[in-house]
Each structure stands twice: as structure tokens, then as C-alpha cells.
Amino acid sequence: MRPGDHVDVIAAGDAGTGAGNGAGARVLAKDARVAEVPQSLAEGSAEDGALIVLSVSRDTATALAGAGISSRLAVTLC
Prior knowledge:
Shape: globular
Helix content: 10-25%
Strand content: 25-35%
Number of helices: 1
Strand order of the largest sheet: 3-2-1-4
Largest sheet: 4 strands, antiparallel
Structural class: alpha+beta
Distance between the termini: 11 Å
Order of helices and strands: EEEHE
Number of strands: 4
């Protein structure tokens, strides 16, 4: 993934339940532009996640921030 790519962001269920069957999955952002993919200072596992900076509307940014508290967020390339 690199700046300029477009992604959809999906909230995948409730992080507290461990539900991994997609039952609670919902699309939070469609066709969001990747603004930056900062390099990690410390190597972590894929399960730790990654930081991706997106260019989205204020309302979408609020929804993403709120969902990130209780759900795992995933991105798919468009």
C-alpha cells in the first residue's frame, strides 16, 4: 500500500467478542485515498496492525476513530 492508493475501511465485528465470522462487519469508508503510510519504528507482528493515514471527510474520520475503539479495522484496496 502506498500514498495515492484508494481503500475501503471495514469494521470487523466487536473486538471484545472475538467474533471473526464477519457477522458484525460494516463498511465505514469507501474509496478513501491513502495519504501516507508511515514507516514503523519498531517491527511488530501483523496482528499488531499498521498505521495508515487516510484523506477522508471529518464525519468519516469521526466514525473511523470511534469504531477503532471497539472493533478491528481492516482495509481493502479498491
